[in-house]
Design goal:
- The structure is a single chain.
- By secondary structure, this protein is α/β, with parallel strands linked by helices.
- It has nine helices and 32 strands.
Length: 354
């Protein structure tokens, strides 16, 4: 079995962060999202991995490299335009051939990985296997409708009036027959080749489409709220670890990770939280569910339930919460102090607060 990881797309729901960065490289718990998928694929025993890339391809390739640190071999497959998941499959046809493969959306996280689902697919040998999860907002996803026999009868991509709350999770398992389906379908009204249409083609053709409903958490990190929620979930799994320097005037409370080279100076960090390598926290309160990446500096501030990317400086901010701050950002105070702020800032931003 091979794997196809989708790391293209424009990430419109995470702008302005994604104007200059790949959404799959935004970290949760100080770990780029794409790592979770690649590690899950490797843990399932899959070593041949194709990665679909778009305009952020050079950034993805520079980070992932040849895949050897994950225990996999990576082939990069450029997709000129993001014209749908089925289009991505066709783009990778030369790499995939007629082999079985798992398709993993690179901005998704799934509790417990995919090993169990890969094994189920190998044991039962359906033509396709989809993963489903109950969601509150099914109109955002591909939705599965179940027939009287409890099996999938209809798949609809982002329906305006969903008839089910079962969303397709961003992991699919396919036999080579999916190629025939992807070649057979036409673009949807959105102008894309939808993987839901390809799977529906298999169903209508009498082929076997198995479904599995996941019971653990699953996150599509395409929006700010989902990214922060994924960060919260991941931080809840961390064990305390202090490798950096903590002075006598500082205090650590709960599950906190202080990485190598980081320094706490007259500050309080209340977990779950992680402070990245070579980051300096001075005269600051870092609250729960905060991840501050490497080489940052936060001074005279309060920050909680937020993600801060690398090489960012935050100074004299009274309180910041529910925020995603890009890399190499400078946030500083002008005069007045607001009670709280909620920010989503792109890379290289300069913000003066009044």
């Amino acid at each position: 079995m091979k794997a196809l990881v989708l790391a293209g797309g424009s990430g419109t729901r995470l702008r302005p962060i994604t104007h200059t960065s790949a959404k799959q490289l935004v970290p949760v718990g100080n770990k780029p999202v794409i790592d979770f998928g690649l590690e899950a694929i490797a843990a399932a025993g899959i070593t041949e991995v194709g990665i679909i890339v778009g305009h952020t391809g050079p950034e993805i390739e520079a980070y992932v490299g040849d895949g050897s640190r994950y225990g996999i071999t990576v082939t990069y497959v450029p997709q000129p335009e993001p014209l749908g998941l089925a289009h991505a499959v066709l783009t990778a046809e030369e790499f995939l051939g007629r082999d079985d493969f798992v398709m993993y959306l690179g901005d998704n996280l799934i509790a417990g990985g995919i090993t169990e689902f890969v094994q189920q697919f190998a044991d039962t040998e359906p033509d396709a296997q989809i993963l489903l999860a109950k969601v509150r907002d099914p109109e955002r996803f591909g939705v599965a409708e179940l027939g009287p026999n409890g099996h999938v009868s209809q798949l609809v991509e982002k329906p305006s009036e969903p008839k089910s709350d079962l969303a397709l999770v961003g992991v699919y398992l396919f036999s080579g027959n999916i190629m025939d389906a992807c070649h057979a379908i036409e673009p949807s009204p959105r102008g894309e080749l939808e993987i839901t249409d390809a799977i529906q083609w298999l169903i209508d053709d009498g082929q076997t489409v198995a479904e599995r409903t996941i019971t653990g958490w699953w996150k599509d990190t395409g929006k700010l709220a989902d990214m922060l929620e994924a960060n919260r979930i991941v931080l809840d799994t961390y064990e305390p670890r202090v490798v950096g320097a903590v002075d006598e005037a500082s205090e650590i409370q709960g599950r906190v990770v202080i990485e190598e080279g980081a320094r706490l100076i007259n500050s309080v960090v209340r977990g779950p939280a992680v402070i990245g390598k070579n980051t300096v926290i001075e005269n600051t309160f870092v609250g729960p569910y905060t991840a501050i990446y490497h080489d940052c500096r936060v001074t005279n501030s309060e920050i909680e339930h937020s993600i801060v990317l690398e090489e960012t400086t935050i100074t004299d901010v009274g309180r910041m919460e529910d925020s995603l701050i890009g890399k190499q950002v400078e946030v500083g105070r002008s005069e007045r102090r607001p009670v709280a702020m909620r920010l989503m800032l792109g890379d290289h931003s300069r913000v003066g607060l009044t």
